[in-house]
Each structure stands twice: as structure tokens, then as C-alpha cells.
Amino acid sequence: MPSLDETTAERLRAVGVALLVSAIGLGVGIGLVLVLSVGLVGLGLEPSPATLLVISLVSIQGIAFGGVALTYLRLRDRSLRNLGVRVPSVREVLIVVVGYAAAFVAAVTGALVVSVTGAPAGENQVAEFASADPTVLLWLVPASILLIGPGEELLFRGIVQGRLRETFDAVPGVVLASALFAGVHYVALTGGAGGRLVTVTVLFFPALVFGGVYELTDNLVVPSLVHGAYNATLFAFAYLAIRLSETGGLPREGASAVLAATTALPI
Question: Residue 171: is its pLDDT beyond 80?
Fold first, then answer.
């Protein structure tokens, strides 16, 4: 049995690896976005909001997160099978449904908790792009299920949470992984530090759900589906709210509130 000092050292090492993997994934993704965006401008092309969003999703959630995760697995002589990537069972499908509902409850709970601070939430790129071009939200509905959910869960649940769980018990492992997942979104937000921290806090709550269902099933497909369906639903609601406000079927304030809710998306 490892001594107390050895256990502490192992846990610190696990946290360090989790931080490093998260930072590399985010850094590589941002770097790709900048290179591709500058390249388009250099070619005399002015990227539209939809183009910028596609570049961001493919670069960060796809190439960067996926590439870093797969590289990590290769370095440790492991494969996706070690992360529990398999077709969900009937029980796991039921957990997907329950997790989907729980993610909304968690997001509302988080919003209520932070609302007492009175600090305005920071905005993410989605809200900014959707304000300029609402059709961006339609692209995000399938992208949530096909790219965003799988990409982010592969890195933050499969790799980060998986590494932390090698040395931490279930609860601290899920909590730490969720905190890292929410924390990396800080750099993708706009606004003051207080507003960004508010949004990061809100993101932490649905992240706990994603981590929890992965812990329960040991199947990465389950949190990917929960995450993707949760995002897709909010994007669809935001698009409908904007269109209804344009036709007078919904007050503009209501549409703004729904669009602001996308700030709480773990994207």
C-alpha cells in the first residue's frame, strides 16, 4: 500500500497531467483557429459568422481535442476501448434520458446559485455569432451530437476524468474533472472577470452530470449523447425564440433571455 506521501504525490501528478492535457487541447485548438482565420483573410476572403464557427468547432472540438486525446492514449499504449466506447445497453439508454433531464436541472440550479451575486454572465462565441446570423444555431444542432459532445467528452471525461480516477475516488475525481472542463471555457468568454467566473460556475453544474453518467456507466458514448442532446436542445430553442421575436410571436426580451441561456452551454 502506498504511503501517505506517495499517494499525495500520485494525486498531484494526476492533477498536473489533467491540467496539461486540458491546456494543450485548448492551446492547439485556438492556434488552429487563428492560423486558419488569418489564412482566409490573407487569401482576401472575409469569413462569415457561420464559417468562423465551423472553423472553431472543427479545429477545437474535432482536431485539437480528438488529436490530443488519441495522442495521449497512444503514449500510454491504450485505445478507445479502454475508455469504454461501445453501443449503449438498454440501461445506459435510460441513463442517457435521465442524464439529459438532469443536465437541465443542474444548469438551472447553477444559474440560481450564481444569480445571487448579481454579476452579469460572460458571453460565448455562440451568442455573438447567433446575434449576427441566427442560422448559425441550426448548424449547431447536428454539430452538438456529431462533434461537440463526442469531442469534448473524449478529452474531458475519457482522458482527464479517467486519469484523475486512477488516483482519486469517484466524487473528487468527477468534481475535479468538471471544474477543469468548466474552467477552460474562461478564455472563450467575453466580458469582465466577474461575468466570466459566473458563467464558468454555471457550466460546472451540467458538467457534474456528464461526469456522473460516465462514472455510472464507464461508457463514453453515454455522456457524449447527454452532452450533445443538451446542447442541441438549447440551440434549437434559441433559434425558435429569435425567429418568433422577428414575427412578433415572442417579445424581444424573451428571445434575448433564451439566447443568453446558450452562455450556459458547455461548448
Answer: yes
